[in-house]
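User: Before I run my own analysis I want an independent prediction to cross-check against. Here's the chain; please return only the structure tokens and, at the end, one sentence I can use as a sanity check.
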Amino acid sequence: MPRVALGLAYDGEPWQGWQTQPGGLTVQDALEAALAQFLAHATPTICAGRTDTGVHALCQVVHVDTEAQRSSESWVRGLNALLPDSIAVQWARQVDDDFHARFSALSRTYVYVLRQARIRSPFTHGRAGWSFRPLELQRMRQAAERLIGEHDFSAFRSSQCQAASPVRTLYSLDIEQTDGSFIFTFRANAFLHHMVRNLMGALIYIGQGKHAPGWIDVLLEQGDRRLSAPTFSPAGLYLANVEYPERFGLPIFDLQDLMATHHLPVVRNC
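Assistant: Structure tokens:
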């Protein structure tokens, strides 16, 4: 049965995360309802990474199996006509049957947009995190360096995390600042449940001066979630990109261009 890969962008604020639930208020539920209309049969979906309630996506990747023959443009236009305004298919490609949205992925990239200001803004509500306390960029960067590489991230995983192992490889963690905003970019082979939001909580504590950058070493060594900072808000978190082997022929996007397309703050030089 032919397999089709879809790239989705969505505003996560109205939805209770990606994964289907009995109430039907998830991104997966909305997409599968649109697919049932578009293809005239029920079609299950597999995604690259399950996002939580309130978490957004610039490029979530999904695959479906169907006998239906449609052009790429038909997939995009047809599904978008049936989806709510907060979800939009960005592209569609037919792929080999050994492609798997989750297991074929080489890496995932999340971006966290944080606004630092004395007073919260109603215009960034749900789209960006907020810190009313000043943040020291260099302290957070020093802490970020300690997180790079393969580690046991038990101190940064949710108690509800179902992953078989807490070990993940964080390839990069970049932090940039411009015009009152901080952009945190996390790239890893995979992420644990709440891992990025828990890392954000710790980095912000360090940026606010509550702990030294070396606190990260203690958290990694102890592996105790109770010792770390609270889980930070989902408002500014975006699944920004998923990388796959070139042989699958999926679109490749520049992250800065992708952020600009969706009107997120873009930092080119600090």
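Sanity check: The helical segments are 27-39, 72-82, 137-147, 195-207, 215-222, 255-261.
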